[in-house]
Write a structure and sequence with these properties.
The protein is an alpha/beta fold and 154 residues long. The chain has five helices and five strands; from the N terminus they run E-H-E-H-H-E-H-E-H-E. Residues 129-134 have low confidence and may be disordered.
Length: 154
């Protein structure tokens, strides 16, 4: 068994990063995105970018209107594609955008992480946020994500 006396520090490196983007909160998403892009570029590793359409935020009329729901989905997809383009412009070589629907923390942990298989999840968090926003879901993801999680605050 290794003891502290025998221990030598080695480089700890991640191989895949997933960053969450909140479509309603650029303030907390920006520093998390910048951290994830910097790390992915520096280590030349894949970066996944995910945003969740928070269907719980929609009223009954919006959920029943196919046009409104379709537009909401298109808006979130466009947002994630814009972030993906920004990451590529920054120099990240391998970028994968993800869009899903539901409660952000649960959806990221139960659906997106198993598909993308990151070993690091990066989330932004702001102290005063909507209870269903990705930033406020950080504690859920920290608790239940099967990978390391870094919470980046503004």
């Amino acid at each position: 068994m290794t003891t502290l006396d025998d221990f030598t520090v080695q480089i700890h490196r991640y191989n895949r990063i997933l960053v969450t983007i909140d479509s309603d909160d650029f303030i907390s998403s920006k520093p998390a995105f910048e951290y994830a892009c910097t790390t992915a570029k520096m280590y030349q590793i894949p970066l996944g970018i995910v945003s969740i359409l928070e269907t719980g935020d929609l009223n009954i009329f919006q959920t029943l209107s196919p046009d409104v729901l379709s537009q909401q989905r298109a808006d979130v997809a466009n947002l994630v594609d814009t972030y993906a383009d920004k990451a590529r412009e920054f120099g990240v070589l391998d970028v994968t955008p993800y869009v899903s629907e539901g409660k952000p923390g649960r959806t990221v942990v139960d659906q997106v992480i198993p598909e993308f298989k990151p070993d690091l999840l990066v989330v932004g968090s702001e102290r005063k946020a909507n209870a269903n926003a990705i930033g406020s879901q950080a504690s859920y993801m920290v608790r239940y994500a099967p990978c390391s999680v870094i919470v980046v605050r503004n």
